[in-house]
Amino acid sequence: DAGITQSPRHKVTETGTPVTLRCHQTENHRYMYWYRQDPGHGLRLIHYSYGVKDTDKGEVSDGYSVSRSKTEDFLLTLESATSSQTSVYFCAISEAVAGSLSLNTEAFFGQGTRLTVV
Amino acid sequence: DAKTTQPNSMESNEEEPVHLPCNHSTISGTDYIHWYRQLPSQGPEYVIHGLTSNVNNRMASLAIAEDRKSSTLILHRATLRDAAVYYCILTSAGNMLTFGGGTRLMVKP
């Protein structure tokens, strides 16, 4: 199994509080991603990173920020949690392949963090 | 981003082959076709990917149409552990995976 760990695995927090989720990898992969998954839906990309300090927005980035100060860690922060951010969050990693314009290798996903905002 | 179309659900009998279809008529020349699956309460798991030629690995086979506008994931002998949601995904520049709704595969004993 790829070395990717999400923490915490479960969290309950109150509306308006800040929350930070951590994704840690031991594979030294360049790309890291944060997705959310809501009941009955596929995964939706929140933010991604293509290197240390290099990040970009995905399709559902409002209300979220990210940071990547070192290769192995990618943090997702909810500055002021809302009930609509109750979801399961997945982190993923992948490696870049030189000369390829698109992802040509497998991505590895973490086990997910179940976040409940009450 | 090019999109994919998959049936919402499919059923299969245990130990029989399963063919999961995917349409991607707007695929571009540089898009790879990826398949992932998600078992209940787990993160997605890589199954297979390809560009133009058919691909085989220990989990499955990927058959890609000559015009690349469709593909089929083939599980040669379905087991109960193969019951999952299967996602067909095209990857474009930026190295991102964009998930659609997927196909929920149910395997009957």
List the helices and strands and how they pair.
The complex is a heterodimer of chains A (118) and B (109).
Chain A lengths: L3 E4 L2 E4 L5 E7 L5 E7 L5 E9 L2 E4 L6 E7 L2 E6 L8 E8 L13 E2 L3 E5 L1
Parallel strand pairs in A: 2-11
Antiparallel strand pairs in A: 1-3, 3-8, 4-5, 4-9, 5-6, 7-8, 9-10, 9-11
Chain B lengths: L8 E5 L4 E6 L8 E7 L6 E6 L4 E2 L4 E4 L5 E6 L8 E9 L3 E2 L5 E6 L1
Features:
A: 118 residues; seven-stranded mixed beta sheet; four-stranded antiparallel beta sheet; globular; B: 109 residues; mainly beta; six-stranded mixed beta sheet; 49% strand
Structure at a glance:
The complex is a heterodimer of chains A (118) and B (109). With 118 residues, chain A is mainly beta. Chain A has strands at residues 4-7, 10-13, 19-25, 31-37, 43-51, 54-57, 64-70, 73-78, 87-94, 108-109, 113-117.
